[in-house]
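User: My collaborator sent over this chain with a note saying "see what the structure looks like." That's all I know about it. Can you take a look?
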Amino acid sequence: MLDPAFQDQRAERALFRRRTLAAALLVIACLALLVAQLFRLQVLRHDHFSTLSEDNRIRLQPLPPSRGLIYDTNGVLLADNLPSYTLTITPEKTDDLDATLSALAELVSITDDDRERFQRLLRQRRRFEGVPVRLDLNETERARIAVQAHRFPSVDIQAELLRFYPHGEATAHVLGYVGRIDEGEMARIDVSNYAGTSHIGKLGVEKAHEDLLHGQVGHEQALVNARGRVLERRQQQAPIPGQDLSLFLDIALQRDAIAALGEHRGAVVAIDPGSGGILALASTPTYDPNPFVGGIGHAAYAALRDDIDRPLYNRAVRGQYPPGSTIKPFVALGGLAMGVTSRTEGKYCGGHFQLPGHSHRYRCWRRGGHGVLAMEDAIVQSCDVYFYRLANDLGIERLSGFLGEFRFGERTGADIDEELGGLLPSPQWKRRARREPWYPGETLIVGIGQGAFLATPLQLAAATATMANRGLQVTPRLLKGTHSGTGAPLQATTPQQRQITTAEPHHWQTAIDAMTEVVEGPRGTARRIRTDAYRIAGKTGTAQVFSVAQNATYNEAEVAERLRDHALFIAFAPAEAPRIAVALVVENGGHGGSTAAPIARAVMDSYLLGTRIAPDGAHAPHADPETAARTETATDARP
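Assistant: Without extra context I'll predict from the sequence alone. Here is the result:
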């Protein structure tokens, strides 16, 4: 019988051999798996992982394109790119950001807005990337930083191109400005094409033609480490610069239009009837767009935003005003085109008009009336009663439809994104907007350009240009053409045109003859701006700001300045071969003949004669306030 101790040793050796074999098999299996995986990675998927490895080492860095420049019609530079120097801090290179900021503040001015922007960007960027502290350092500030550079190993000065508007306030409402891309814009742009770009067009031409001005982003290959730091720059694809733009805008005329408006709140739009080119688009008061490029401070922006005169408001394309009597030549043309009246047919004005069966009186501006007037005299003397009668004969459907031919009530199609469309009243509009029926008296009010009828100065200028063209409607536009670079030939844009065929040629001539007599005739409401240098066709207008009771009298001297009537004027010249069409509004200016017409004359003199206007607003001949004081009463449209 075997010793128990001997039996245990044999069992242990057998168990050890089994375990050794199992371990060897497990090791062999693991080695087999490892070899298989290495074969898969190194042989079967070598190309895939090689590419991934290269991507970890080589990174494409965007190269932003330079923004296209903007010129006026004569080649004057309106929007430039100037080098700007930005003070930056690289967080990983300093142990105490606050101490670094405090030390820098002793050398250059760092405002609370600068600190707020720095803290915001600090949270968005990696620690090895420079974070802007101060934008647009001047030469003195750059010198101070350079002298003290040994104290600030984390501080650097970076150069970049920033937009600059050399004419400042004169072009703010036309060109708009560029600003830093916000979250809303980031959601709708092609992010890949804006890689490395921090600014985008916000308003005006800068926004409307962003696709032309921006260009195409380029790229360069950069060798980076595991943390993304650039170690070496290699091959690159150069960016394609944005196209340079030439506008129809005449900066000399633009400046003169602003000077002519002077201290008034208002707008002037001038158009070349032949091309549709916008020669001037002025809105006052205005503002300097340059602070917006780098980021305007809260206090400065609040001052502009809260200014009672609203300098940020582009009255030329967003100001919606009753067109007043400036609409009368178009209503007269509609009466001729629809066959409801003729050039010689007289209508009686006894100072007021009443709809049959109603007691409400619709007053004329001349309380005693004008007597019997034919169409030309009715336009020249701006008789309200004549146009009450004509509007009533036309009816609102025909009247609204004909005025719609001139694009009243809709955008003109000009290349300005901010443009509003005004409002052309109709029964359909009233049912949709107010859920009320149309009243006959409302038709009369539309006939004199009052009530719910609203138009922008741009719309009035475009309609005036169409009148000057005898029905050829050319879509207004600022863009004249593009250049692919300095000295490159102009690639001209093609105007969009259509002919209004509703009216006959002699109908257009009748309306134009009447408008010419408004200025050239002895009884015209704008006769004081007549000149021997050229003939002007125009029409004055006055738009109510508030309603006056039926039996009350409007006394301008007793009304607060901001409740006084708006003054309007439309014109084109020379009357026989028009080269310029003008429309303007002077808010609370009173009378079109005494306030608005001289401004239009000054603008036309500037363009046709080269007469410059002094910054103090000294311009055109004195126009005395002979235009009869307006005493019309409120015209509540409901009988």
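A starting point for your reply to your collaborator: The CA atoms of residues 6 and 12 lie 10 Å apart.
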